């Protein structure tokens, strides 16, 4: 078996291996090829810096990397690792990483990172054996918004470029897919809640499926949270929220108070290279 990049591997072959690897996973994975093509493009995936293990010409395991400069470091973010069921137990992921890390170093990558479901003990132990360490704890939510309508909410829709990113709090707490660099070309609407003629809060949402990439208040109080989620409810009654950092106590307190279901918890792990 050999390791090489995925640069010249047909997308269909990658997807067939991906879906077979994630069959019966902890959460149900989408199966639409176009969904992943768009998602991985937004995540800045580079197939020349993504890697697969091949048995003859058959892809049997993979690590798919998004590459971007964030917080002063060039990071390779693992947006998907998988191994075909019949090849598990052979330390395939560890072998791929051994090859990948040396190649990434030559490309001046300074850190590898990934997300893993906290209940996936086998994967966590595998990543720790490679040298990854836990650095963030995330919580994911979904459900119907139960808050009562509190009256007219002044919503102002703007563009990505009109967002004053330097003044928006907690940007360093967002995960890879929810980071401003990843959402820029996604199917999102950017909406401010206006109170007394100034922005009080904001949210970034895919209104077709209720996915909230970012949301926060700009002044911390209960009323601003109430108005924020009343505004969100005006766009979508049901929401899905991935990877809320567990250090954001007020945000988590509010999400729990409005009855959203905590569906899964994840770690972010990192490896300096």
UniProtKB/TrEMBL annotation:
Report keywords, A-Z. Answer: Acyltransferase, Transferase
The keyword Nucleotide-binding belongs to this UniProt entry's keyword annotation: no
Check the record and name the Pfam families matching this protein. Acetyltransf_1 (PF00583)
InterPro entries in alphabetical order: Acyl_CoA_acyltransferase, GNAT_dom, YpeA/RimI_acetyltransf
Keyword check for Magnesium, yes or no: no
Domain N-acetyltransferase: residue ranges: 1-150
Q: Which GO terms describe its molecular function?
A: acyltransferase activity, transferring groups other than amino-acyl groups
The protein depicted here goes by the name: GNAT family N-acetyltransferase
Q: What is the species listed in this Swiss-Prot or TrEMBL entry?
A: Aquimarina algiphila
């Amino acid at each position: 078996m050999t390791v090489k990049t995925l640069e010249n591997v047909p997308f269909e072959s990658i997807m067939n291996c991906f879906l077979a690897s994630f069959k019966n996973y902890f959460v149900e994975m989408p199966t639409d090829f176009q969904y992943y093509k768009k998602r991985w493009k937004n995540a800045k995936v580079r197939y020349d810096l993504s890697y697969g293990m091949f048995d003859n010409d058959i892809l049997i395991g993979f690590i798919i990397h998004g590459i971007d400069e964030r917080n002063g470091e060039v990071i390779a973010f693992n947006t998907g690792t998988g191994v075909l069921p019949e090849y598990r137990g052979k330390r395939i992921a560890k072998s791929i990483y051994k090859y990948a890390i040396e190649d990434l170093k030559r490309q001046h990558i300074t850190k590898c990172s990934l997300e893993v479901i906290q209940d996936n003990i086998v994967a966590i132990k595998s990543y720790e054996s490679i040298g990854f360490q836990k650095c963030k704890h995330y919580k994911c939510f979904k459900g119907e918004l139960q808050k009562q309508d509190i009256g007219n909410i002044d919503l102002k829709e703007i563009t990505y470029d009109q967002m004053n990113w330097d003044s928006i709090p907690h940007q360093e707490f967002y995960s890879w897919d929810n980071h401003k660099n990843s959402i820029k070309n996604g199917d999102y609407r950017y909406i401010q809640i206006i109170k007394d003629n100034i922005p009080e809060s904001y949210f970034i949402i895919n209104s077709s499926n209720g996915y909230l990439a970012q949301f926060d208040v700009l002044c911390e109080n209960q009323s601003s949270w109430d108005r924020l989620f009343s505004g969100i409810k005006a766009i979508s009654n049901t929401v899905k929220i991935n990877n809320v950092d567990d250090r954001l106590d007020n945000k988590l307190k509010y999400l729990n108070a409005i009855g959203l279901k905590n569906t899964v918890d994840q770690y972010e792990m990192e490896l300096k290279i």
